[in-house]
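User: Okay, second chain of the day. Same drill as before: sequence in, C-alpha cells out.
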Amino acid sequence: PAALEDLEQRLLAYDQVPPGWELRPLLFSSAMAALSALSLAYPQGSSGARYFETQFLRQLLRSDGPGLLWESVQYDWELTPWDLQLPECPPWLVVDTTLTGQRLRLAEVLQRYRPLLAVLVFSALKLAQRGHELDNAGAVLLAGLPAEVDRAARRLAQLRQAMGTLPDPRRLSPPWVFCPTDGHAEAVLENNRWLAQSLPCGGLLRRVVHPSLGPLSHLPWAVAPFVVLEGEDPAGISAALAREARSLPLAQGASFGFVQHRFESIVPVRKEQRVLFKVAMGSSSARDGVLAALKRVYGPPDLDSLQRAYPGLRRQHAVSDWAS
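Assistant: Same drill. C-alpha cells below.
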C-alpha cells in the first residue's frame, strides 16, 4: 500500500550511510515481529542481546552462526553500552537501538566492521510517536551494498506478509509520527540522564543504574529511557511512590518514552525472582517534583521509618512479565 511506503520513507530521516551504501526502510507490526523476521531470514547467527523477550525468541529458535544480534545498550541489570567491540567481523550484524534513539549511527558500525549487511532495528512505538502509542510498530533500516540490501528487503517483506506482521498505516498517519527531529526522544533521554545523576544513594537506596554512570559514559549512546533503582523493599517503595504520585505528573505503569513520567516494578525472569524497579522519565519538563518524591521515599534509614513516614502503607508486589 502506498500509505505504508510513505511511512517507511519517513524512517530514512533516522540515519544516513556512507557513499556507495544503500539504506532501505521496512516497517513491521512490532519490534519483536521485526526481530523474528530477521532471525528467520538469517538463522545462522549468535546473539549478545540481553533483553528478556529477545533472549526468549533466540532460545526458541536455537540458532548459532557467524552473524550477530547486538544491542546499543544491553537491557540487563547493568544497562551496559556497546563499546563497538565484537568477537569477530560478522557477515551480517543486527543492532537493536530501542533504548538509545538516534545516538548510535550506522556509520559507526559500517566504518569499523563493513559487514555485507548492517541492520538497525528499534521499537517505533516507544520514542517515535511522542508518547501517544497510536499503534505498535517496529522499524528496520537495512544498510549495505545495493544488491545485498535488495535481497534482504525482498526476503523480509515476504516473511512479513507470511507472518501477518504488516503494520496498520492508517493508525500511524499523523505527520509527527516517525519525526526524529521533534525533540521528544532527546528530551526523554536527557530527563533520565538528569535523574540518574541527580538522585543520591543512601537510606533505602543502594544503587542507581544508568549508562551515563558507568565506565563507558563518554559514548554518545550511553543513554537510556529509564533509570533502574536498586534498594530495600521494592514493594514498599512502589506503594509509597504511588502515594506521592497523586500530586505529580507521575503514574504507575509499564514501558517508557511517554510525555509524563512512569514507574514500575516487575520480575523479568521468574526463576530468578529478582525485582526490577525502574523510573521512566518522559519528555515533560516538569521533573523536579519526581526527584523530590524519590528522595523522600528512599530517604528513611530503615523500613520501620518508611512505614511511619507513610502510615497504612499497603505494599505493591512486582508483577511477573508475560515472557518470564
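The chain has a mean pLDDT of 91.

User: Thanks, on to the next one.
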